[in-house]
Specification:
The structure is a homodimer. By secondary structure, the first copy, chain A, is of the alpha/beta class. The first copy, chain A, has ten helices and six strands. In chain A, helix 3 packs parallel to helix 4, helix 8 (163-170) crosses helix 9 and helix 9 crosses helix 10. The longest helix of chain A is centred in the last third of the chain and has 15 residues, at 174-188. Chain A is elongated and about 70 Å long. At the A-B interface, helix 4, helix 5, strand 6, helix 6 and helix 10 of A face helix 4, helix 5, strand 6, helix 6 and helix 10 of B. Strand 6 of chain A pairs antiparallel with strand 6 (122-124) of chain B, so a sheet runs across the interface. Chain A binds a DNA duplex through helix 7 and helix 9.
Chain lengths: 206, 206
DNA sequence: GGCGCCGTCCACCGATCGGTGGAGGGAAAG
DNA sequence: CTTTCCCTCCACCGATCGGTGGACGGCGCC
C-alpha cells in the first residue's frame, strides 16, 4: 500500500482526489491537509510516502511546504496543480518535488503518477521537461555538423586535455588531433580551442 | 493494450525485457529491434506506442534513433540503459525521449514506467531531474571567489581573446594578464585556459 | 603599524598550439 | 567506377601559453 497525503485548501478538490485514490487497491490515503503548514506536520506524523500537493494555498504555499517536506527526507512530493503554465511548477521542482500532475488529468494518469513517484521516478509532462531542457541548452537551430571524430576530439578539448593527451587517449597521432581540431575551428568559425569550446556550448554541441 | 517495441542489441537483455512485459496484462510487445535503424523502421511499421530503447547500439545509436522516431511523431521513447552516469541520457532526453529507466530497476518500476510514458508522462529519476535543474539555474553553488579583475580576464579568455589581445583591451601588460590567469587556474583547480572556461561555466561564473 | 590581499609589472624558459601543405586509404554515394 | 567525405599521418614554423620567481604600491583591517 502506498501511503498518500492529500493537500489542498479546496474541500471539493480534496474530496474528489481522495475518492479517486481510495478506489485504487494499492493506494491508501493516510491524511488530508488544508494548507502547507498542516501538510508539513502531517507528512511526518502519518508517515506518508507520497504527498499530493496543491500549490496555491494560504498560510504556507506549496513550494515552501515542498521544500520543508523534502528536506525532512523519505517523503516524495507530487504537485497537483490546475494550470500548466503556472510558473510555480518549476519553482516546486527546484524545491524538490518529484513531479506534477494536472487536476484535469484523467484518473488513470493520476494513479499512474502516484505509483511512479512512489517507485522513485519523476512525473513530468513533456512540456515541463521541454522547459527544463530549453533552459539547459541555448537553442539548437543552425548547428554546424561535426563528424563523430571531430566531436570526440572537441569533447576532450573541453575536458581540458592537451593535444598530446588527446592523441594518447584516442590512439592516434598528435598531427591527426590537430587536423580534426582545425576542421572544427573552420566549422565553428573560431581561431582557437578555447573559443571553439564556448562556441560549441552556445550551439548545444557539448 | 499498450503496444511496445523493444530495442536492444543484446539478445539476453531483449528476452528478459520481453518476458517481463508480456507478463503484464495491459502490455503487448509488438516487435523487437537489434539496432537503431531497425528500431526506426519497426516503430512505424508496427504502430508502436512506446519504444523501450537501449542507448549503446551498433549501426545507429539510441540517441540518433530516438531523434528520428520522435520526429516521426505519435511514438514515445523510453530509454532503458545500464548506467545512470551515462552522459548520453541527457542527450537522449534532449533528442526527445520521454524518460529513462535502469536495466537494474525492479520489474514493477519498469512496468510503471512504460504505463506512465504511454499516459503521456515523463519518467525521470530524481538524479536526472536534478541535473536538468542544475543546468537551469546558476545560483546556489559553492563558487570560488574570483577577484573582479580575474573575472574580467577570464571572461575575455572565454570570448576567445589571446593574452596579448586581453592586455591591449584592458590597457595592462601581458605579464599581468598571465598573472591573473594563473590565479584563476589555482582557484578553479585547472591547468589551462580552456578547462578554466568550461569549469567557470559549470560553476555559473560566466 | 604591520599583515594580507589585490593589481600591476618584468624576464626567461620549455611546452604547446595554430597553421601550412601536403599524402594515402577506406567507405558511401552517385 | 568515379567522386566525395572522413580519418589518418608527416614535417616544419612562428606565435602563444603555462610556469617560475621575483618586485612594488595601494588598500583594508586588526
Amino acid at each position: 500500500m502506498i501511503r498518500v497525503l492529500v493537500v489542498d485548501d479546496h474541500p471539493v478538490v480534496r474530496a474528489g482526489v481522495v475518492a479517486l485514490l481510495t478506489a485504487a487497491a494499492d493506494i491508501e490515503v493516510v491524511g488530508e491537509a488544508v494548507d502547507g503548514r498542516e501538510a508539513v506536520a502531517l507528512a511526518a506524523e502519518r508517515r506518508a510516502e507520497v504527498v499530493l500537493m496543491d500549490l496555491r494555498m494560504p498560510v504556507l504555499d506549496g513550494v515552501a511546504a515542498t521544500a520543508r517536506i523534502v528536506a525532512g527526507g523519505g517523503v516524495r512530493v507530487l504537485v497537483l496543480t490546475t494550470y500548466e503554465e503556472d510558473d510555480q511548477i518549476l519553482a516546486a521542482i527546484e524545491a524538490g518535488a518529484s513531479g506534477y500532475l494536472l487536476k484535469a488529468a484523467p484518473a488513470a494518469e493520476i494513479l499512474a503518477g502516484v505509483r511512479a513517484v512512489a517507485a522513485g521516478q519523476a512525473v513530468l509532462a513533456p512540456s515541463i521537461v521541454a522547459q527544463l531542457v530549453s533552459r539547459a541548452r541555448t537553442e539548437a537551430v543552425p548547428r554546424p555538423a561535426l563528424t563523430p571524430r571531430e566531436g570526440e576530439v572537441l569533447a576532450l578539448v573541453a575536458a581540458g586535455l592537451s593535444n598530446p593527451d588527446i592523441a594518447a587517449r584516442l590512439f592516434i597521432g598528435e598531427a591527426t588531433v590537430k587536423t580534426h581540431l582545425l576542421h572544427v575551428f573552420e566549422k565553428l568559425e573560431v581561431r582557437d580551442r578555447t573559443r571553439a569550446v564556448t562556441r560549441a556550448m552556445e550551439l548545444g554541441l557539448l
